[in-house]
Amino acid sequence: MSMLLQELHGELRRLYIAGSDLAVDDFRLKKLEPKLTALGERAPVFRRIAEGVAELIGPGVPFERAVRLQDVSMLLNSVLATQGKTEVDGTGSEADITPIALDNRLPDLATNHSSRELGEVRQALSSSGSGRYEVVLSAYERGLFDDLRMLPMAVQALGDSYSEIADLATEKIVPGYGSAIVAYLLNDLDIQGDKAHERRLQVVKKIGVNPEDRASIDKLILAAEQGGAKIGPAAIACLGADPECEQRLLDWSRDSKKTVRESAYFALSVLDSIAARDRLYEALNGKDGLMASEAIQPSISQALAERLITLYEEKLKDHVDKKVNSIKELRPLLNALGKVRHPSLERLYTEMAQDLSIYPVFQRLARTEMGQVTGAAADYFVRSNTIKALEHIERMAKTSPTMLVHYAVPLARRILSPAEVYERYAGSESGKIRMSDDLLFMVFREALYSRAGGYDRRRPQAQIEAEWDPRWLDWAIDHDRLSVAAGLARLGNDRLLPYLKQAIRNNASPTIENDRYNVLGAVQNVPFDEETRFELLMQLIEAPNWNRPSTLAYAEFALTVEASDVPVNRIDEALRRIEGIMAGIERTDYKRRLQEAVDTLRTRQSAAQAEAGE
Amino acid sequence: MLELTASHIDSLAPNAAAAKNGRGLVLKNKFVKLNVSEEGDLIFGECSGSGKSNYICSVDFVTPENPVSRCNCPSRQFPCKHALGLMYAYADGLTFEKATVPEDISSKREKAEKREETKAKRESGELPPAKPKKVNKTALKKKIAQQLEALDELEKIVVSLVRGGLGTANARTVKDLNDHAKRLGSSYLTGAENELRRLALLLEQDDRESGYTYAAEQLTLLNAFIKKGRSYLQTKQEDPELAPDSESTIEEWLGHAWQLAELKEAGRVSESVELLQLAFYTYRDEARKEFVDTGFWLQLGEGKIHRTVQYRPFKAVKYMKEEDSFFSVAQISELYRYPGGMNARVRFEGMIPRQANHADYDGIRSAAAASIPDAVKAVKNQLKDPLADRAPVVLLNAARVAQTENGTFALVDEAGNTLELGDVYRLPQPTTPLLSLVDPSLLENCAVLAMFEHQMDTGKLVAQPLTLIQGERIARLLY
């Protein structure tokens, strides 16, 4: 019976689409009619349906026919609503239903976040426009993605059109669910899919797949073999976890496509079987050397590293058949060993630091090429965080002094106190390793200022005071390094102000414009008293030659903005001094800027007077 | 002494941004003065803003279920961020100095007290009741006539669409339907206006096939509405003083917005009720042009599942409070019940939260239907009325939730009856895919809050799980 009624529903739906005007003599309904009439014998409601259908296809006015279709349909829907099938397909008996698989379970994700909180993230991830990244990042930081309901949104974010969101999802959010997410990600992976699906595989690569989870491995193999141009290699990179894939990976490592080989190298380094190591050793010495070295760097095993260190040493010592004549032959090894920590490597680099001449290869390399090898050694030492390592670097710096700037001082600052750092590099008595003024200047330029948008930004005052010994300020004054003195400026040095006031007038210095801008940074950040601050600011405005051609327009701009903001009781004096120099300025652009500052000051002055008069 | 929790304050906030800004004020130490009254039922203070003078704000808990916030800032949100910040500061345990209640507030309190008194006196009959609103009979008759006329118009456009067939519908048809819907709205048939617009949306839908199925269903729904509405209005036309039908949903279909006083008059108020929210979600209803915040609540001790609905027109979103999930028990002195089926809408003004306890959670299990067939029978009984809510929500006990070989999820009761779980069309998000992600232990011996929907094309009555409850663990799948 319900089959018949469901069939009738289908026919009526067809008429709704085609229009009731076409219902006259509808032959499919006609075929149903006798059955419906028979059913009508059983209950009045069925009889009414049968009668309705008869009228619908019989003769009549079109308007009535439409009404009839509506009425029959309404009646039928009501009847069908009481006959809805609720059992699952199949026999409906419990025996066919399996409990939900217990393996691959996710950590117990709570659902205690409020709809409003989650809704904000959903809105951000399902719309476009600005500010979305901030919402997602803050949600991640607040742990909103630990909510079960956010998981589908997190996976969806892998395909976000704004790549920073997609990157955040790939790097942090989705891997945060742990290894159980792998099965979920692979379950509906589209092997011909787009970037979003490639990113799924990047996540799988990042967290690794459990070789016991055959369904996931099979899916990966399928994707590797039949997937699209991006999906295939991404899937190959995930397969290193499965020892059974060894042969496949070895084959892929000889594929004609570069991306396939690259992924295979990575997977082989994860697999780390004897055959895998042999193949990688071979690749590193072949024409794929550079590419392979980059692919395996994050996952290189100690066993492979050991073999490579031996080879590295042989090459350095000319113990190989072919002599190394260019850095090109060493670069794959430098790359592959770039993140490795190993006693043999440490010994090798220590020997190098003691005496470079023991490696004949250095005599054939150009100076910059040699720098790459010693740089790798210094890099190794920097990550050791020991005094010994620092001494090694300093020893190497005797031949290339810039190492002090790039490796020694950063390491020293990490492991020594600010006072010790000062004494080590500028102290008068101990002064083991005196750095030249120019080198120190390089150190400070980088340490005191971050360059953003093409101009210097002074680091926070508290950071500067905590990180640098106060004696450096005297050093900067002694050596007349204005930008360093401005960058290190702090209260408590009597020589500072006289020096600054004299130095900012040195219009002959080629870097004076930038230096003055640095002094302005000090005026803004050092907690000088009001008088000092005002006087320095005024002198900064009076010092320059405002008629010279300049490209540093921002410095002047910042000065005039700052000048518009002097305390109310100083406005009179500021106006007098600014207008004093304006008289001698010919450049209209600068004049206009100063005029704007003057105007602002006058407005503030009259506002203040009005308030006082009230 | 006043007890405030952060989650309670969150629930008072009009939206997430206001709550965040309020917290920000506390973090940034913007409050220059924090006071509490001797009785502890008023907190007040001053908060510095960008201007010269501070904002003076207070939150009055003299009626704890309905805290009143006051502030001299120009914000149109209530409570404003300053009042919220004040409450967060209190909940965070900041020091509030004891002080006497400021004069302006005590005078406001007095006035409010007086209002309450007169109201109570009126109710008890001590004072003559306020003059009943005079019904303008001619105006009402005119309105009914206009509604009837609009119903005839509606029938015409529906019939012409049925005659021509949905297959011929195009952008033009959609526009006509929308224009017509607008006219219905101005003829006091806002309910029909929304449903006609819903039909237009279905015809615009990308997935044409499912669009047709639901559009055909929508057409029969409109038919049922026209019939029922016409006979109802005709009776009313004969006797305009007839009280609105407070038993069926026809008034709401016509577009009547029930006033709390009307519901009270019709005896649709329950006193001293405790509700525990089991599910909450917000969605955009394009037909209504409103956000709809929907909550499903269990009435503790009673076992009924009620629905709270808050409509926020797209245009007024900025100024309206966005409802939110609520995790405590709401103690409500007067619960207003709308006419309706299994999950009739309820409303309440003000409530006092309390932490849910063992007994409450036990109550969930005992309120859940033990047998699938019994629950389904009740659902079907509602669905056979064409104007009844098409998506009833039921709380069911499950021996387990399981999966068939082809991946379909099913709920199995003690007796071994099964109920297929799937995603229903009327909910904004799917939830069944989440079942494979929840902790499997949660899927045994649990209660499931589910929304039913009869799917016309397959003849299936499908249930979508909204929330899983086991002991004191509640997994909300919808948001």
Keywords for this entry:
heterodimer; A: 614 residues; mainly alpha; two-stranded antiparallel sheet; 34 helices; B: 479 residues; alpha+beta; OB fold (Dihydrolipoamide Acetyltransferase, E2P); 4 domains; six-stranded antiparallel beta sheet; 13 helices
Q: What does this entry look like structurally?
A:
The complex is a heterodimer of chains A (614) and B (479). Chain A has 34 helices and three strands. Chain A has 614 residues and is mainly α. In chain A, α14 packs across α16 and α25 packs across α28. With 479 residues, chain B is an alpha+beta fold. Chain B has four domains: 95 residues, no CATH class; 116 residues, no CATH class; 104 residues, OB fold (Dihydrolipoamide Acetyltransferase, E2P), CATH 2.40.50; 109 residues, OB fold (Dihydrolipoamide Acetyltransferase, E2P), CATH 2.40.50. In chain B, 37% of the residues lie in helices and 26% in strands. Chain B contains 13 helices and 17 strands. In chain B, α1 runs antiparallel to α3. The model of chain B has no long low-confidence stretch (mean pLDDT 89). The interface between A and B is large, with 67 and 78 residues.
How many runs of DSSP E, i.e. beta strands of chain A? 3
User: How many distinct helices of chain A?
Assistant: 34
Derived from helix and strand composition plus strand pairing, the structural class of chain A reads mainly alpha
Count of DSSP-assigned helices of chain B? 13
Which regions of chain B have little confidence, pLDDT < 50, spanning 5+ residues? none
Question: What pattern of helices and strands is seen along the backbone of chain B?
Answer: HHEEEEHEHHHHHHHEEEEEEHHEEEHEEE
Most extensive contact: A-B, 67 and 78 residues
* Radius of gyration of chain B, CA atoms, in whole angstroms: 25 Å
Question: What would the principal axes of the Cα set say about the shape of chain B?
Answer: globular
